[in-house]
């Protein structure tokens, strides 16, 4: 089974990814982001969760810790429209965590 990508975030983030062709999206608010992330984690068909970094910083610390330690699905926090990232991991680090090895490492 192929893993799917889902985007969970505010309206500008979701709309941007819809325009890029991502069909699986959930528009969330600061109050609903926690619930939406928890529901999505239970659904094993999603391999990549793209979410708003600003909203992710507002979820409960227990969920943040879980998201930072799991290998699957890969959670990619996206900065808001200002473009300033506060603490998101580099995509290379996220892929390394998911696969267990660094694809870009030289032999």
Automatic annotation (TrEMBL):
Do the record's keywords include Protein transport?
Answer: no
Source taxon at top rank: Archaea
Give an example GO molecular function.
Answer: proton-transporting ATP synthase activity, rotational mechanism
Which topology term describes how it sits in the membrane? Peripheral membrane protein
Q: Where are the annotated coiled coils located?
A: none
Q: Where in the cell is it found?
A: Cell membrane
Gene3D superfamilies referenced in this protein's UniProt entry, alphabetically: ATPase, V1 complex, subunit F
Per UniProt, the keywords (alphabetical) are: ATP synthesis, Cell membrane, Hydrogen ion transport, Ion transport, Membrane, Transport
Q: Which SUPFAM superfamilies match?
A: AtpF-like
Q: What does UniProt give as GO cellular component? A: plasma membrane
- Assembly and oligomerization: Has multiple subunits with at least A(3), B(3), C, D, E, F, H, I and proteolipid K(x).
Q: Which family does it belong to?
A: Belongs to the V-ATPase F subunit family.
- Output the HAMAP family linked to this UniProt entry: ATP_synth_F_arch
> What job does this protein perform?
Component of the A-type ATP synthase that produces ATP from ADP in the presence of a proton gradient across the membrane.
Which protein is depicted?
Answer: A-type ATP synthase subunit F
């Amino acid at each position: 089974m192929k893993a799917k990508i889902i985007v969970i975030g505010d309206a500008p983030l979701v709309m941007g990814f819809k325009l890029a062709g991502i069909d699986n999206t959930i528009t969330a608010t600061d109050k609903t982001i926690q619930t939406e992330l928890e529901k999505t984690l239970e659904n094993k068909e999603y391999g990549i969760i793209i979410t708003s970094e600003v909203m992710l910083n507002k979820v409960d610390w227990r969920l943040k810790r879980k998201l930072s330690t799991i290998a699957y699905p890969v959670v990619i926090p996206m900065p808001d429209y200002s473009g300033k990232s506060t603490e998101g991991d580099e995509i290379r680090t996220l892929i390394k965590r998911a696969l267990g090895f660094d694809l870009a490492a030289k032999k």
